[in-house]
Amino acid sequence: MSDRRKFVKLSLLSSIAMLAGKRLFAADIPAVAELAVPAVKDSPVVISTWDFGKEANTGAWEILRKGGRALDAVEIGVKIPEADPHNQSVGYGGRPDRDGRVTLDACIMDEHSRCGSVAALEHIVHAISVARLVMEKTPHVMIVGDGALQFALANGFKKENLLTEKSEKEWKEWLKESKYAPQKNIENILPGGAKNHDTIGMVAMDKNGDLSGACTTSGMAYKMHGRVGDSPIIGAGLYVDNEIGAATSTGVGEEVIRIVGSHLVVELMRQGLSPEDACKKAVERIVSRNPQAAKDVQVGFLALNKKGVYGAYALQKGFSYSVKNGNTEETFESKYFYS
Ligand code: ASP
User: Fold this and answer.
1) The ligand 1 atom nearest the CA atom of 218
2) Which is the closest atom of ligand 1 to the Cα of 201?
3) Is 164 labeled as catalytic in the residue annotation?
4) Distance separating alpha carbons of residues 215 and 263, to the nearest angstrom
5) What is the pLDDT of residues 9-32, one digit of tens each?
6) Residues near ligand 1 (Cβ within 6 A)
7) pLDDT digits (tens, 9 = 90+) for 52-101
8) 25, 58, 155, 234: most buried by Cβ count inside 10 Å?
């Protein structure tokens, strides 16, 4: 950039900063290509995986618009699909494992790098709230299985049957062939034409510019009992670094765990990549590790950086994500690797 252009850019930014009563930091200076895009750093924003993220975002937005904390927003937000019996990939109504047991995975992370997680949790609708309690009330990060249930019950959570009639019926149908083959969640592969997995991953920035994230799922339908995916694993299904950004994932968890996907996305943003480019590089890492396996599965990443810029990228066509801020409420199709 010529000195003159640099000067014009800096003067412009300084005037904006002065008008806003703020000091100008190097990190606030956007790349030239970004100058056309208004900086949204001070505007709260929430983004989440899939089209059902739209409803979850509405819950989160209620907190954010009142100036609340991103951590509260993401917890409240993902509780909406967790409680929805029609959402068969998250919480109550989620598809069971091959033994007919609904087991939930969830994690949460805040702006101070505090985090909590539960895996293979049964009988509790709001796995995300149990994960938050692990973060806030224990010296641990992750509690699993019976221990997680015991911890939840000891803290006043209600024991419930999470297997709805619909999910039970579909599972019994599946049992006739018992074929476990996780496939791209862009096609109809279950009896009745349903998808066999999905997850709500949500990241948000509040009015202070602080970031938090939450991720919750019933995991892959008809998985082996005790199987844990990426969603409750800090660094795989979710990662937040309040200096840089936040990322979350959905899709075949084994592929995400192998590359510690969400942490990788955040580290790539630290190196200067945009959220979309960071997600793309992480997807390419999956492909480069095992191109044959990558062709047959879906993985989608979603990321938000400290300037409020968001982006996503997936292995296959069909990954959508939902965004809500002061100006927008929209669901976008992400770009993808395999056409
Ligand atoms: N990532 C989840 C899992 O592997 C499933 C999904 O998001 O589709 O359990």
Assistant:
1) 9
2) 7
3) no
4) 14
5) 433 333 333 333 333 333 333 333
6) 185, 197-199, 217, 219-220, 229-231, 250-253
7) 999 999 999 999 999 999 999 999 999 999 999 999 999 999 999 999 99
8) 234
